[in-house]
Specification:
Elements: E1 16-21, H1 34-50, E2 55-60, H2 62-65, E3 80-82, H3 88-96, E4 103-109, H4 111-124, E5 128-137, H5 141-154, E6 157-159, H6 161-169
Parallel strand pairs: 1-2, 1-4, 2-3, 4-5, 5-6
């Protein structure tokens, strides 16, 4: 009997979704590399829109942490408010309505809280998770690095925005 082949982690526009997690005003001055994280996530959002990859946006307790930062460029997206340290409960209905979904591209903050818990919940649902490491951060770099290692141990793919964008596009003539 042949051994089961591990997932290769291929990313295709028709079976992927982009998650943008909690890039809000109150985090602006506390999260390491915040401007760069938001800039890379904004780039992922532009590519998702061009390739018609669905996008889901959450805000952690917006009454206290404020709205999503404007430079992310989320015009036209409706953020879902949450208090849970996972995006999945807030997006449950949306996820259930997408039977073709195989891969989630995950950007946001904080790595050891909402990104880690979202990753674990998505993996538990049998989805592939691609953590966009240059679009995820935390207040503490120790927390960020340990959370990324934990996600990899659990089966998530750690990728860069460039690597994921090139997989989504697939060809230099695109």
């Amino acid at each position: 009997m042949a051994a089961a082949r591990p997932s290769l982690g291929r990313v295709l526009p028709g079976s992927s979704v982009l998650f943008l997690c909690d890039m809000q005003e109150k985090f602006r001055h506390n999260i390491a590399y915040f401007p760069q994280i938001v800039s890379v996530a904004a780039r992922m959002l532009k590519v998702a829109r061009l390739l018609e990859v669905p996008v889901m946006l959450t805000e952690q307790y917006p009454q206290g942490l404020g709205p999503t930062v404007p430079e992310l460029g989320t015009e036209g997206l409706r953020p879902l408010a949450k208090t849970c340290f996972s995006m999945v409960p807030a997006l449950q209905q949306e996820l259930d309505s997408r039977p073709q979904l195989r891969s989630v591209l995950l950007c946001g903050i904080e790595a050891q809280a909402c990104i880690l818990n979202t990753t674990l919940d998505l993996l538990d649902r049998g989805l592939q998770v691609h953590v966009v490491v240059d679009a995820c951060s935390s207040r503490s770099q120790v927390d960020r690095l340990v959370a990324l290692a934990r996600m990899r141990q659990s089966g998530a793919f750690l990728s860069t925005s460039e690597g994921l964008i090139l997989q989504l596009v697939g060809d230099a003539v695109h």
